[in-house]
């Protein structure tokens, strides 16, 4: 009986935790393209760019925000970023400037009464190229006017 109760408790806990997780969106990097090249997400959600190339390194650089080019990531590695502020965020691959993409961030339904932030204040984001899930460093990003 204890085993059955423990199993039920595990299932309930797993279900509750899965429902509270922030959605993550995926963009593949393959054949020198971001796929999809344009995406719309809600504020607070994350995007993971995964390098699916066989031998090529890439970066995801939000150059127009004024931030420095991030580290390159290699095949089977990924770069992840959380967007907390509504706005349009163009990006490109640092070593391959013709590789471009766009992230559109809209207010989440919970924040629908709040106007999109169009000020010059920076919002917090998390990003880092990685193979596994080590802690992510926090940086700031601003929407492009």
Q: What's the quick description here?
A:
This protein has one domain (24-141): Sandwich (Immunoglobulin-like). By secondary structure, it is mainly beta.
pLDDT < 50 stretches: 13-19, 112-126, 132-140
Using the alpha-carbon principal axes, give the shape. Answer: globular
Helix content: 10-25%
DSSP summary: helix tally? 1
Beta-strand portion reads 35-45%
**Main β-sheet description:** 6 strands, mixed
How many beta-strand elements?
9
Supply the helix-strand structural class. mainly beta
What distinguishing features does this structure have?
145 residues; mainly beta; Immunoglobulin-like; six-stranded mixed beta sheet; three-stranded mixed beta sheet; 1 helix
Question: Secondary-structure map with pairings?
Answer:
Blueprint: H1 2-20, E1 24-30, E2 33-35, E3 38-42, E4 46-51, E5 78-82, E6 87-92, E7 100-106, E8 123-130, E9 137-141
Parallel strand pairs: 1-4, 3-7
Antiparallel strand pairs: 1-2, 4-5, 5-8, 6-7, 8-9
């Amino acid at each position: 009986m204890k085993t059955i109760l423990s199993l039920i408790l595990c299932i309930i806990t797993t279900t509750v935790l899965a429902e509270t997780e922030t959605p993550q969106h995926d963009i593949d990097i393959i054949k020198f393209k971001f796929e999809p090249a344009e995406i719309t997400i809600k504020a607070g959600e994350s995007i993971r760019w995964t390098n699916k190339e066989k031998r090529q390194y890439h970066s995801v650089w939000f150059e127009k925000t004024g931030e420095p080019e991030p580290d390159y990531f290699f095949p089977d590695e990924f770069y992840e970023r959380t967007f907390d502020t509504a706005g349009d965020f163009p990006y490109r691959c640092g070593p391959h400037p013709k590789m471009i993409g766009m992230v559109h961030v809209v207010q989440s339904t919970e924040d629908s009464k709040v106007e999109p932030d169009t000020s010059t204040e920076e919002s917090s984001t998390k990003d880092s190229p990685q193979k596994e899930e080590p802690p992510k460093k926090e940086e700031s990003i601003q929407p492009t006017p």
